[in-house]
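One such given next:
>
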Amino acid sequence: MISVIIPVLNEVAGIAVCLEHLLKQPQDLEIIVVDGGSTDGTCDVVRQYPVMLQKAGGGRGRQMNQGVAIAQGEILLFLHSDTQLPADFPQLVTETLADSRVVAGAFPLAIADSQWHFRILEKLVQWRSQIFSFPYGDQGIFLRRRDFEQLGGYAEISIMEDYDLVQRLKKRGKIRLTTKPALTSPRRWQKLGLWRTTWINQKVILGYHFGIDPVILRQWYRTPTR
């Protein structure tokens, strides 16, 4: 069984679409939504669906660890609520992890906006993910439960929890992309602009490698300046 773990915080606008898409699957899925303290009615929406709802404060890393703590599946898939997986994603996940050399997988990134510059961004993400084995959280990272537990789970830091996990996974084996992409929302790029958002992301990554406190990095990410 695949356990799909979805960390949320004030996602009332999109969580229903996310859950309805997952619940169309004929395969045996366990869906766990972990709320980080929403105040917009997200939890009320989640309770309308046959999924598990868990609450955990302290950032997305802690949310996902709490989701794993109650999960029953041997495969864990961490999904952002604004990312939609391909229709046959359970088969893609199990096929990817059937190779014992593969420690984790993710989906190629597709962005739900028709503007041409998003196609460039998708190509850059594909290049980063395949050549450097560095998918990000909006690509739906999945792995075997035993590998997750042996790594000690997510670091419970203010930001960069997915990046940190992938860094540790790379030391254990291959990280492979599936053959079909996940479709993610362009909302942050649309709000801040493509190149400004990309610069902010790269600045946060550099700050992480220079040892800047994740609390400060989160402030950079959430309240960017021009």
